[in-house]
Amino acid sequence: MNTLLTIYQTIKSALTSAYNLFWGDLITIPLPGENSVGLSLLVLILIPSGIYFTVRTRFLPFRLFPEMFKVSMEKNAGTQKHSISGLQALIISTATRVGMGNLVGVVAAISAGGAGAVFWMWVTALLGSATAFAEATLAQLYKEKDPLYGGYRGGPSYYIHHLFIRKESGRRRSVIAVLFALSGLLCWCGISQVIGNSVSSAFENAFAVPPLYTMIVLVAIAAVIVLRKNATVKVLDLIVPVMAGLYFAVTLFIIFSNIGKLPAVFVRIFSEAFGVRQVVAGGFGAVLMNGVKRGLFSNEAGSGSAPCAAAAADISHPAKEGLLQAFGVFIDTIVICSCSAMIMLLTPGDLTQGLAGMDLLQTAMEYHIGHFGVIFIAVILWLFSFSTFIGILFYARSNVAYVFGDNWLSQTVYKLLALVMLFIGGLEAYTFVWDMGDLGIALMTVFNMIALIPLSGKAMASLKEYEASIKLNRSQST
Questions:
Q1: Strands 144-145, 35-39: pairing kind
Q2: 301: helix, coil or strand?
Q3: Are 397 and 153 in contact (CB under 8 A)?
Q4: Which of these, 478, 393, 409, lies nearest to 92 by C-alpha position?
Q5: 151 with 314: CB under 8 angstroms?
Q6: Contact 215, 384 (CB under 8 A)
Q7: Please, how many CA atoms are within 13 Å of residue 14, restricted to the half-sphere of its CB?
Q8: DSSP labels for 80-126?
């Protein structure tokens, strides 16, 4: 027993050290008023990369926003059996981006960093859009046919492979690509536990349902979906638009019900984002970094997750999928995360004083729409979390195939492992496993960026080619 405890403590200590390496303050920049800003390794990687891609794409998130919306309305090209459309790939990536972080995570960012954190969350999302474009376009450029599920597959493991392995070498795998794939599988197992715990806690608070019963039902439904060959996309096609639409509609109702308070909310957001008071009072670092970290964690741009869905799209031009995934970052952070921010900022501060997490959000919703708000948040959290679980197992397909080859055994074993983690997470919160998820996404980001920067020229060439075709079509139609 002592040996097992020692092993557990050693693993936990190693995970904590690794977590602090990526997410802890690597560099501290002093500011006036005995204040400082701590920059983690992930921030030092993703923010400069976002600026680089934003400049290199000539401010794509602003310049081509109408084109993003236009592409999202296009139908499946239909050239490959069992393939998915660009819009369906966007729905899958949105399912994984939109999760508990859009609810409780945003509330936590505002609680720690104030209303100004919302502004920096927006800035991070706009920078992340350009990064999301680059990685999704590369996923399309290096995708390949999927012999198991049909359609296409790909993602960072595949474009990393093409960067490091020449065809004539005869090598079947790249070390960096394998490390990325394993990091993703590690991350998604950790996230499965977080999902289970979030759903069981919300249902216990709202309906007094014991976690065991919640998890039996949740895992049974999830198993029916993920163990079937091609049920994932059909289910997400139904769930994601409904859950996002409902949450957005309720938020609009709350905003219009409090329309007179809205100008003051925006004044508060911008004044606290740049306010001298925050700098002098020693709070600017918290405002900035909580907004930045929330934006990075929520939109996933640069982590290499969304390209696993982007590669599966059957679309007429690679740059179109890049535009769709850039649009996905906008939906996640500018729309959904902002909904959570508005719900909280339109609630009197004395009602939420001393509260945190789900309790804070449910209290805010109860203030706006009564007890129905508590139930609504529990149901929406279930939909957000459940769709995330379904989506990450879609991501896992290509990573499992890259590491273990094309066989149903490895695909099924990983799905069963994720289902077990989902069930265990609903009964007990093992925080070291949650850190495992954070560590996994950090490692994914590092390995993804190793290839993303060197290969970015191909993504930029694809964008240039696509824009030239748009101009040609316009000139011919006039």
A1: unpaired
A2: coil
A3: yes
A4: 393
A5: yes
A6: no
A7: 7
A8: STT-B-HHHHHHHHHHHHSSHIIIIIHHHHHHHH-THHHHHHHHHHH
pLDDT in tens, 143-167: 988 888 888 889 999 999 988 877 6
Q: What are phi and psi of 275, to 5 degrees?
A: -60, 140
CA distances from 170 to 50, 64, 161, 179 (A): 35, 41, 12, 19
Beta bridge partners of 29: 37
145 pairs with which residues across the strands?
152
Identify the DSSP state of 74. P
Q: What pLDDT, in 10s, does the model give residues 217-260?
A: 888 888 888 887 776 777 777 777 888 888 888 888 988 888 88
Find the DSSP H helices in 24-77: 41-56, 60-63, 65-72
Torsion of CA 280, 50, 53, 91, to 10 degrees: -140
> Which pTM value belongs to this model?
0.86
8 Å CB contact between 426 and 214:
yes
Q: In 3D, which of 28, 60, 58, 55 has the Cα closest to residue 44?
A: 28
For 188-203, letters b (16+ CB in 10 Å) and e give: bbbbbbbbbbbbbbbb
HEC states along 319-363? HHHHHHHHHHHHHHHHHHHHHHHHHHHCCCHHHHCCCCHHHHHHH
* C-beta of residue 184 within 8 angstroms of C-beta of residue 399: yes
